[in-house]
Specification:
- It is an enzyme of class 2 (transferase).
- Its EC number is 2.1.3.3.
- Helix 5 crosses helix 6.
- Helix content is 44%, strand content 14%.
- Bound molecules: phosphoric acid mono(formamide)ester.
- Phosphoric acid mono(formamide)ester binds next to helix 2.
Length: 304
């Protein structure tokens, strides 16, 4: 593993290794602290979009591993915001830093950065993929519900970066995956192509009731994360019936787990009651961003 750009880059063995290292680092952190695996290393934390969890969990994670994490607002502070070519920014940062985390819009831009940086690049979210989030989701499911293989995971909502990544991550982990979204909001075509190789272990549906049936884990995310505000009204119409409610979850396995990558829009993709019933799982999922990203950094930069 040279970079973490999207879930498709991982083999099942690499995915399991990241989760194993994350469990170990979490246990060490709870017992007093993790070893300084990034001592002397620096990580550029480049954000072209807003973030709470990704930014702060990387900042804290690099610190806990003994390295230096430098946040930079790529939308307003770097010369890239005034037109410096991306490949030049990549070649400069790659000479100062040992790793670059970038939150941006186009996956192709992230891949160009990785082509030119000469150091590992980690996807902090693009319009196509959110691998750090899905690794934290899988860590949380395994931590709470045991082995992932054979569990049914159902994603309900927009076929966006979260759907793209959770479909691939769940299938790589041996889960049965159902994705439920309105027909106009399907996941990326290449993700559906990947998923179809798993035969009956993958289903793409439009009916939330059918999708959540017997699910061990139900996952959702905001309906307009990557969309313009002007689209909100149309999306609220198109996603009517896709909210995770107590009634919808009656069809899932009793005691099913509910995850949400946050921030949540209560009353839109998830009801307040479902959110609060599952808040401990959801905030453990947020906490696990820290541990799983430390694992990714330790594997990429310290050869774990
Ligand atoms: N889930 C997630 O990526 O959160 P932030 O947008 O706050 O980083």
């Amino acid at each position: 593993m040279n970079h973490l750009l999207k879930m498709n880059d991982l083999t099942p063995a690499e995915l399991t290794h990241i989760l194993d290292v994350a469990d170990q680092l979490k246990a060490q952190q709870k017992a007093g602290g993790t070893p300084p695996l990034l001592a002397g290393k620096s990580v550029a934390l480049m954000f072209s979009k807003t973030s709470t969890r990704t930014r702060t969990s990387f900042e804290v994670g690099v610190y806990q591993l003994g390295g230096l994490g430098c946040y930079m607002n790529a939308a307003t502070e770097l010369q890239a915001a005034r037109g410096e070519p991306l490949r030049d920014t990549a070649r400069v940062l790659g000479r100062y830093y040992d790793c670059i985390v970038w939150r941006t819009y186009r996956q192709s831009d992230l891949e160009e950065l990785a082509d030119y940086a000469g150091v590992p690049v980690i996807n902090g979210l693009t319009d196509y993929a959110h691998p750090c989030q899905v690794l934290a989701d899988l860590m949380t499911i395994r931590e709470r519900r045991g082995p992932l293989a054979g569990q049914k995971l159902c994603f309900v909502g927009d076929g966006n970066n979260m759907a793209n990544s959770i479909i691939i991550g769940g299938l790589l982990a041996g889960m049965r995956v159902t994705c439920v979204c309105p027909p106009a909001y399907r996941p990326a075509a290449d993700v559906l192509g990947f998923a179809r190789r798993y035969g009956a272990d993958f289903e793409l549906l439009a009916d939330p009731k059918a999708g959540v049936r017997d699910a061990d884990v139900v996952v959702t995310a905001v309906w307009n994360s990557a969309a313009a505000e002007s689209e909100t009204e149309r999306r609220m119409r198109d996603f009517r019936g896709y909210q995770l409610t107590s009634r919808l979850l009656e069809g899932a396995k009793p005691g099913c787990m509910v995850l949400h990558c946050l921030p949540a829009h209560r009353g839109e993709e998830i009801s307040n009651a479902v959110f609060e019933d599952h808040a401990d799982e959801i905030f453990t999922e947020a906490e696990n961003r820290l541990h799983v990203q430390k694992a990714v950094l330790a594997i990429l930069l310290a050869g774990l």
